[in-house]
Design goal:
By secondary structure, the protein is α/β, with parallel strands linked by helices. It has helices at 42-49, 72-75, 93-104, 108-117, 133-145, 163-178, 190-196, 214-221, 236-245, 269-277, 292-300, and strands spanning 2-13, 16-27, 31-35, 57-62, 65-66, 78-81, 151-155, 182-186, 199-204, 207-212, 225-232, 250-254, 257-263, 280-288. It folds into two domains: 2-220, Rossmann fold (3-Layer(aba) Sandwich), CATH 3.40.50.300; 221-300, 2-Layer Sandwich (Alpha-Beta Plaits), CATH 3.30.70. It is 35% helix and 31% strand. The strands form three sheets. Strands 6-7-8-3-9-10 form a six-stranded mixed sheet, sandwiched between helices. The chain is globular, with a radius of gyration of 24 Å.
Length: 301
Amino acid sequence: MKVIEVKHLTKRYGDYTAVDNISFSVTAGEVFGFLGPNGVGKTSTIRVLTGLSRATEGSCQILGEEMTPTNRRIRGRIGVVFEEPNLYARLSGRQNLQFFAALYGVNKKRVTHLLKEFQLSEAGRKPVANYSKGMKQRLLICRALLADPELLILDEPTSGLDLASVELIRGHIQSFAKAGKTVFMSTHSLEEADELCNRVAFMNHGKIIAEGDPATLKLRFGKEYLQLDLIPLVPLVDFRNVVDELQPIKVEEDGKVLSVLLDLTQDTLGADIDRLRSVGRILRVHSQEASLREVFKSVLG
């Protein structure tokens, strides 16, 4: 089932085109990552997906219905977390959730359950004004989950958070998807996208310039590397001359140990390793697959 289906979506603000004729779909149970630098159209797309803004051209269907600013049926079936913590600061965490639970017609037991799940049971009695950024973000996700939505839309869900909050939120995103529900998330963390997302799309200048599962994109745009950690057996200047001749991807120095990164796919790899062995003692050898960061650099130039 296609939970999100966007066709030829365009969003303009006067003469400025923020989103330029993009199409993509997200199926049930997927975590879909929306990636790209600031100002490339991600937030404008999310505003259309959540019904806060109307598309200039094209269509945006959510859960089988056209999403518009007046479609209240769909809004009750999705949970949304924006980057800004739009909470009632003078109310406690529990009071914030109870207020929205009343709007959704949700039992108060759901509030208690979510506070416990996101490790906010004790903090739930305190004013939100005293919360850390991580606590506020966890509370926002609790609020988005109140009505047990079928689709969760997250805008930078872990940006600038402490490690404990990041791990907790990522774990709940994975659990949400394993339950057959769907997550659409924008993130600047390429490591997070690699860990969580079944598929990702890269945006630039209002267009989707690459889309697919992370493994396929890394094979297509990235390179696999072989890292050799060595101790030079010849004078350092002679060792570096040999390394330079091999044209490595990268060389790093940590005390007496030098790490040389070679392209795992090059035809001369065996001969290059033998050459390094002739001038250095190899301590460790391990391969590195391409990362989404390399894909990001490649597709965005």
